[in-house]
């Protein structure tokens, strides 16, 4: 006797089952008496607007329309006979009967879960350009088919990105041109807009996570030494401006250590780093014994971590503190990129390119006056500054750059475009004030925040890509890493009276007048002319 599985795979049986299935649906939807009395449906004329609407169940209607659309071929029953819902309770019975019929058919004629999921994925993929159908499908699957609901939700994100791409394509992207890392000085690159959700080709590959470090507003505002772009080069290298509390800079709770824990240099080299370190340690012992300089890690085995921060003394000083302590210091190099396109509370209305020029000038000054005989701690910090990138930003800066405003999605695309094909890049850190970073964290391709779940100051987040088996591509995830300790605000500026000069002169004159006259003074002469 033929098994059920063999019978289902038989061509004649397949044709017969399909024919019976279509006849069953066609009979069900053409039986006017059953549709009216049992399921509460009436023939509907679009020109007739007198139909009562109070009893209509919108959710059930969506499921009804969607499931029938899936079964219809060409000009199906929905196009031939249109009916409206008149009785909500009876119509819900109709939906339940259809669902039971479909589930019963699946039980009678079993289909592998892999094949079923593949068919659903194909159907969902075909609706990416039809956002209305996607929402209908999502609503129809919400209660009974949670896996399909998840796949539909992800596909809706795809459709949203496609809509975003069409809108951004009309913008003047030439305003956002930036030099490409590693090219000649004349090369510029237009940031790419994501073509669909989680496209690792446009953004970063799966080995490169992104980190967001949220800070408070500029702590130098209103202090005795406020943050000024023309003095950014001098101020940025002073520890007093760093936001990170001194007690956490060199501990396991330091942001630099917690971030580098998630970076594995082994993913970026073919050399077994564990054996490499053992051999290197042996060479160091031999070098010390022979009185020779100890060998260092080959640059080919180092990975780069880029820190993007705005031109603010507090942000740059904080970036230096991130570099101080890391989990894999021998194999991780930090590159600080002060980005004039990132905004802060202290530089919202000024030309931030002046701050970059100030940093470059300060770097040149320190290099010129540097002597090998004494070790300047600032030189270690200056080495972390990506000087080449700063100079190219200044060189390519135009008036249009000053006036241009980038959307959060464009900001992310612009930065990621610089590193998508860079092999040594192991991670990117976006350091900035919470008001600036939160819109970036909620922009595509990242998932939006839950209501009431917005991040806050002094919080750390990690973003990475993980494979989605339903969409068959990588999608971005976001993880909360915790908080870090911040410093207390700088002392505020002391108020100075408007007429302080006059007051000081009067007080000085009064003190002098109270002094006894000298015996040599001539009578009638003034003791002092003020």
Helix coverage percent of residues?
Answer: 40-55%
Coarse shape = elongated
Q: What separation lies between the terminal Cα atoms?
A: 125 Å
- How many domains, as an integer? 2
Order of helices and strands: HHHEHHEHHHHEHHHHEHEHHHHHEHEEH
Number of DSSP helical runs: 21
Structural class of the helices, strands and pairings? alpha/beta
Q: Strand arrangement, largest sheet? A: 5-4-6-3-7-8
Q: C-alpha Rg, in Å?
A: 35 Å
Task: Give the averaged pLDDT, no decimals.
Answer: 71
The total strand number stands at 8
The main sheet comes to:
6 strands, mixed
Fill in the keyword field for this structure.
single chain; 530 residues; alpha/beta; six-stranded mixed sheet; two-stranded antiparallel sheet; 8 strands; 44% helix; elongated; disordered C terminus; HeLo_sf
Tell me the layout of helices and strands:
Layout: H1 4-9, H2 11-30, H3 32-38, E1 41-43, H4 58-71, H5 77-80, E2 83-85, H6 88-108, H7 113-126, H8 131-141, H9 146-168, E3 210-215, H10 232-235, H11 246-249, H12 255-260, H13 273-289, E4 303-309, H14 313-324, E5 332-338, H15 353-368, H16 377-384, H17 387-395, H18 399-403, H19 408-417, E6 425-433, H20 434-441, E7 459-468, E8 473-483, H21 500-513
Parallel strand pairs: 3-6, 4-5, 4-6
Antiparallel strand pairs: 1-2, 3-7, 7-8
């Amino acid at each position: 006797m033929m098994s059920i599985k063999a019978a289902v795979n038989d061509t004649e049986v397949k044709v017969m089952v399909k024919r019976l299935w279509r006849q069953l649906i066609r009979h069900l939807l053409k039986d006017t008496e059953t549709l009216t009395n049992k399921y509460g449906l009436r023939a509907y004329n679009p020109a007739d607007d007198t139909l009562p609407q109070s009893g209509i169940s919108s959710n059930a209607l969506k499921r009804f329309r969607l499931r029938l659309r899936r079964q219809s071929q060409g000009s199906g029953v929905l196009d031939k006979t249109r009916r409206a819902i008149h009785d909500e309770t009876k119509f819900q019975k109709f939906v339940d009967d259809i669902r039971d019929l479909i589930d019963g058919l699946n039980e009678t004629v079993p289909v592998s879960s892999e094949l079923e999921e593949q068919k659903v994925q194909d159907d969902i993929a075909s609706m990416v350009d039809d956002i209305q159908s996607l929402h209908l499908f999502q609503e129809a699957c919400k209660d009974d088919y949670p896996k399909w609901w998840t796949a539909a939700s992800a596909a809706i994100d795809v459709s949203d990105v496609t809509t975003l791409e069409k809108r951004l394509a009309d913008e003047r992207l030439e305003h956002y041109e930036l030099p490409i890392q590693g090219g000649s000085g004349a090369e510029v690159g237009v940031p790419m807009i994501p073509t669909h959700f989680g496209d690792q080709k446009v953004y970063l590959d799966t080995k490169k996570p992104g980190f967001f470090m949220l800070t408070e507003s500029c702590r130098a505002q209103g202090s005795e030494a406020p943050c000024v772009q023309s003095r950014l080069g001098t101020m940025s290298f002073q520890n007093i401006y760093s936001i990170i509390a001194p007690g956490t800079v060199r501990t396991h709770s330091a942001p630099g250590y917690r971030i580098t824990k998630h970076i594995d240099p082994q993913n970026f080299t073919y050399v077994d780093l564990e054996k490499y370190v053992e051999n290197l340690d042996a060479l160091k012992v031999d070098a010390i014994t022979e009185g020779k300089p100890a060998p260092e890690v080959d640059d080919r085995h180092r990975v780069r971590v880029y820190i993007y921060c705005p031109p603010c003394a507090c942000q740059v000083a904080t970036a230096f503190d991130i570099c101080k302590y890391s989990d894999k210091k021998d194999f991780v190099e930090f590159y600080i990129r002060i980005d004039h396109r990132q905004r802060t509370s202290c530089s919202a209305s000024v030309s931030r390119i002046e701050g970059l020029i100030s940093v470059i000038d300060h770097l040149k000054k320190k290099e010129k006056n540097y002597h090998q005989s004494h070790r300047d701690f600032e030189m270690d910090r200056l080495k972390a500054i990506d000087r080449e990138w700063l100079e190219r930003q200044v060189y390519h800066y135009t008036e249009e750059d000053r006036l241009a405003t980038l959307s959060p999605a464009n900001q992310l695309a612009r930065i990621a475009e610089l590193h998508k094909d860079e092999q040594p890049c192991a991670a990117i850190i976006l350091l900035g004030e919470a008001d600036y970073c939160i819109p970036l964290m909620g922009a595509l391709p990242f998932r939006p925040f839950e209501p009431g779940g917005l991040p806050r100051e002094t919080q750390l987040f990690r973003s990475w890509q993980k494979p989605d088996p339903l969409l068959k591509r990588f999608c971005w995830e976001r993880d909360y890493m915790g908080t870090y300790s911040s410093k207390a605000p700088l002392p505020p500026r002391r108020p100075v009276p408007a007429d302080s000069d006059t007051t000081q002169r009067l007080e000085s004159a009064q003190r002098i007048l109270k002094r006894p006259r000298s015996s040599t003074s001539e009578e009638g002469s003034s003791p002092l002319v003020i």
